[in-house]
Design a protein that fits this description.
With 141 residues, the protein is mostly helical. It is 74% helix and 0% strand.
Length: 141
């Protein structure tokens, strides 16, 4: 965890254009991690991410209620990096979107974007174990 992520070629597009193009899980990233660490390490790392992300999102939510933008930025910066490293593109995308807006002191879509981010995390949480099992069985993507 905590490893940096490379900038995506999708960086230049507008948020509305990107939202529909961003994957929940980039399987090629996980395959690369699996190549060097094995399936067990990838599964363990995703479980650790799930727990850490839950805490980061809860702490960011407290920051939103208190209008504590430095706290929100700190939590979402960590979430962005960790999710990006693991190929969890939609979580990384929305964390980056919120972070960028806050850095520009734009809070107009903060609540809506944070709801979307938490919904993407919920999708990840509800499907990653099943998806990994299906991936192992089907060798798809």
């Amino acid at each position: 965890m905590g490893l940096g992520s490379e900038e995506s070629p999708l960086e230049e597009a507008q948020p509305e254009e990107l939202a529909s193009e961003v994957k929940l899980i980039n399987w090629s990233t996980l395959q690369t991690l699996e190549k060097y660490g094995g399936k067990e390490l990838v599964a363990e790392t995703l479980q650790e991410f799930e727990m850490e992300a839950e805490e980061l999102l809860a702490e960011a939510a407290v920051g939103i209620k208190k209008n504590d933008y430095p706290q929100i930025l700190s939590k979402l910066h960590t979430l962005k990096g960790n999710s990006g490293t693991l190929g969890l593109e939609s979580i990384s995308y929305y964390a980056k979107l919120i972070e960028g807006n806050l850095k520009q002191q734009d809070t107009t879509s903060l609540h809506q974007d944070f709801e979307t981010l938490t919904a993407e995390f919920a999708k990840f949480r509800n499907t990653y174990k099943q998806s990994i099992n299906q991936k192992d069985q089907q060798h798809v993507r």
